[in-house]
Amino acid sequence: xxxxxxxxxxxxxxxxxxxxxxxxxxxxxxxxxxxxxxxxxxxxxxxxxxxxxxxxxxxxxxxxxxxxxxxxxxxxxxxxxxxxxxxxxxxxxxxxxxxxxxxxxxxxxxxxxxxxxxxxxxxxxxxxxxxxxxxxxxxxxxxxxxxxxxxxxxxxxxxxxxxxxxxxxxxxxxxxxxxxxxxxxxxxxxxxxxxxxxxxxxxxxxxxxxxxxxxxxxxxxxxxxxxxxxxxxxxxxxxxxxxxxxxxxxxxxxxxxxxxxx
Amino acid sequence: xxxxxxxxxxxxxxxxxxxxxxxxxxxxxxxxxxxxxxxxxxxxxxxxxxxxxxxxxxxxxxxxxxxxxxxxxxxxxxxxxxxxxxxxxxxxxxxxxxxxxxxxxxxxxxx
Lengths: 262, 111
Prior knowledge:
The structure holds two protein chains of two kinds. In chain A, about 35% of the residues lie in helices and about 15% in strands. Chain A is of the alpha/beta class. Chain B has a single domain (about 20-105), classed as Ubiquitin-like (UB roll) (Roll), CATH 3.10.20.
């Protein structure tokens, strides 16, 4: 059996759980979580230094074999996202970029239009662009034409742990996009990650649900199992649901049957 | 370099219409001598630069000296000068100039 790999840009991933570095109680938990989950891609953010706080180099906690996915969080428009992407690449983070352009501070909904504009610019510059978006099929097709390496629709608002609230819209993306669909944001439980994979998502990105679990290392492992299970189920092709029961044992040859079939 | 600036530059203070102490970011550092590289400079020779969007007056120095003076650990630091990333090996050779805009950035946890 050939290995089931997800290819993004020039990198192949055998593990379809992508993770984030936000909200961990201590950075030292990050390499433990990565080892336990086997996650091969992890997000980081870029910020102005806080001169009042002793800052650690978060990159020192990410093993070399794990692909960095810098995000453009904090960007309010395409130009700011492009700037952050260029800085991240120049600073040695590689060609991957998660475009995150947010102006709505209550729900942290991505601005799809600015995200498309940033994708158009960055894909031309050779970035491997993973845009974080509201699941909107026409937009996803535009992102695809613009050169996005994948689309990353949200399941629910960032950090909300509410799961696949946008499931039916994500299903349209999965069915119609040529590029991989990675469900990002809102996934709160391993079962929700499994559900996303079962429906055909190519990967999921989970940060808050792992980082803020009581035991992030064990939760990373739990999510990894769920993602593998969901992916395996998708590849095995799920049986169709039905309203009425369909007996799984034969309906003939009952031991009590007599000559009248009673 | 500039002398005491009588008219605050647009956008340098929080409210350009009010004459407040913060309208004159150049004044406060002028009052004290500052030390760098073994020399004392009076602020009158200082340069007004933007560090992470905040106007500050610094004695003439290189990027490396500024980074060291602020007690920043270089390995975690990304430096952007006037929109261009400056690699660490260049820090000792680049002297900051008046009106330079410096960004001191680092990677942090994020999803």
